[in-house]
UniProtKB/TrEMBL annotation:
GO terms for cellular component: cell envelope; cytosol. It is an enzyme of class 1 (oxidoreductase). Residues 60-213 form the Dyp-type peroxidase N-terminal domain. Its EC number is 1.11.1.-. This is Deferrochelatase. It is found in: Cell envelope. PANTHER family: DEFERROCHELATASE, DEFERROCHELATASE/PEROXIDASE. The keyword Metal-binding applies. It comes from the Bacteria. Belongs to the DyP-type peroxidase family. Its cofactor is heme b. Binds 1 heme b (iron(II)-protoporphyrin IX) group non-covalently per subunit.
Amino acid sequence: MTETQGSSPSRRSLIGWGGAGLALGAAAAGGAVAMTRTGDDVDPAAAEAGAAVGFHGSVQAGIATPVQDRLHFAAFDVTTTDRAEFVQLLKDWTEAARRMTAGKAVGEGAYGGLAEAPPDDTGEALGLKPSRLTLTVGFGPSLFKKLDLADRRPDALVDLPTFAGDALDAARSNGDLCVQACADDPQVAVHAIRNLARIGMGKVVIRWSQLGFGKTSSTTPDAQTPRNLMGFKDGTRNIAGTETDRLKKFVWVGEKDGPDWMVGGSYLVARRIRMHIETWDRTSLQEQEDIFGRDKGEGAPVGKAKERDEPFLKAMKPDAHVRLAHPDSNHGATILRRGYSFTDGTDGLGRLEAGLFFLAYQRDVREGFVRVQRNLASDALNEYIQHVGSAVFAVPPGVRDKDDWWGRTLFSEEA
Ligand code: HEM
């Protein structure tokens, strides 16, 4: 470790030192080698408010990392069919991500460079802390077709089937690739996506994006479980970032899973789920609790006293969400949830355009999301929600060191 997260120079201090050249110099001198995150470790610095999360590691940050407060998620379409050009973009993105997650400005910074040229960085994150920013990249099924890589597409990256009740909007679905930006400061997350989109101009274009707040899943069991917009604790029985064995079993692609380039990666399912908030708010407390199979105050499963008590599924209504989503009802299927609430104004009919931007990571989409979502066809919650956007991505392994780049194992010859 050549640079601890806590001691990373902030965006402001680097620029303040006289800019750009110096900032790059600092990175080249070892500053770019952030705390290495190996395998499934949770970066202890990540618990610290405002700290940086290590960018390098065998897995990408932003999956098992303790969930940050804010999200900016973007799905991109690739506009070039030139593979070399796309690979160069991934390298440029990696370098920018390495800097931004460490709290540094992109390239030569936001000012101090050539007066005749637009600055490399857009500037709105100057003076802000790294805010535990993580940037996680994923490749959608359509990318493999577009870049003539069909033989490298993982079997586990299935096109999602149509599920009962789906009302998917094509303009909010799919995408050749995605970047999930999570941070404790929304401006830091938005700055990151904006700057990556800017670097990608002419090669990729944003297809859709989603802002999220109020994380609805916890990957840190000791922390207080957050609540979703229906007012219930969400993420109680999630995989924790510290549960190495369960992460290995259910989240990370293993050596025997295939293809080789995905070892250490994972698969991401994103679903924009609209909540019919106004209807929900007119529903009795008893019915609300029956729908989830947990009580609203403590979050305890039916018949139990405490949130962390083991659910007794048979005590719940047959169509209770927790009963149907539980691994025991799904041949053991277990996913890591990392979703966020959203409110995108109103829908023109006086109703909040709000809901859950559901994000789930798993080792195999067929054994994870597809299995659970199929079982949720009879979920009592369906009366109050509607899936309106959907996408699936292969999330490659982590960037190992300063010479490595996002997607190298997919695109380089020796992979
Ligand atoms: C707006 C939609 C949804 C809401 C409001 C919601 C809410 C909740 C709540 C409150 C819990 C109980 C606390 C917990 O253990 O986390 C829960 C559990 C769970 N949900 Fe959802 N959920 C939604 C959609 C989904 C979807 C689409 C899936 C997967 C296909 C899913 C999978 C799960 C799983 C696996 C559990 C844990 C079950 C257990 O092991 O006890 N949820 N959800």
